[in-house]
Amino acid sequence: LGLPRLATGDVLRAAVRKRTPRGLEARAFMDRGDLVPDDVILGIVREELERPAAARGVLLDGVVRTVPQAEGLERVLGALGRRLDHVLLFDVDAEELVARLSTRTVCESCQTPYMGRDAGSECDKCGGKLVRRADDEPAAIRRRLEVYEEQTAPVVEWYRRSATSVQRVDAKGTIDSVTRRALGSLRNDPAQE
Ligand SMILES: [Zn+2]
């Protein structure tokens, strides 16, 4: 799509590494698998949306995760004179998610994710060290799934009620096939002009 991707998780983890005040505040929540407070998330989203690189649009990844965040995002977008065009819901069952996350490592330097590669091996892109994220440990994964059911699943209903089109994407299978389905659902989105 040629749009910058804004993954608040990555932005937050960068802040944690640099030990900024926002990073230190967020860290305790993330390590437990809990959600980072809304004002921290929305502050990041707003800063990123105001950057020139975001003028044509942004792909939000991992935002929003709660109904209050969805309401907050509406306010941020309204203040900036922008709007949400599409919502994609990537649908995978819990067992598949646990299997994926428990074999995931990420590059410490460039954040590229890898499946089935051991922590400590080298990143193909930058030579950085692959690490396992604290919130990908099994206990934190279970906690994240509980948090999803309690707090994130209701966001889907909220968007449906607010007349925002939500496209469900079957996210089982290879990266290529999921990518094709995601692009296909954007093309078929009735909200698209
Ligand atoms: Zn790397």
Fold and architecture overview:
The structure is a single chain. This protein is of the alpha/beta class and 193 residues long. Helices cover 49% and strands 13% of the residues. It has helices at 8-17, 21-32, 38-49, 67-80, 94-102, 138-161, 175-187; strands at 5-7, 59-61, 87-91, 104-107, 113-115, 130-131, 166-170. Helix 5 packs across helix 6. It is globular, with a radius of gyration of 17 Å. The two termini are 16 Å apart. The protein binds zinc ion (ZN). Zinc ion (ZN) binds next to loops.
Question: Mind sketching the topology for me?
Answer:
Layout: E1 5-7, H1 8-17, H2 21-32, H3 38-49, E2 59-61, H4 67-80, E3 87-91, H5 94-102, E4 104-107, E5 113-115, E6 130-131, H6 138-161, E7 166-170, H7 175-187
Parallel strand pairs: 1-2, 3-7
Antiparallel strand pairs: 4-5, 4-6
Helix pairs in contact: 1-2, 3-4, 5-6
The protein binds zinc ion (ZN).
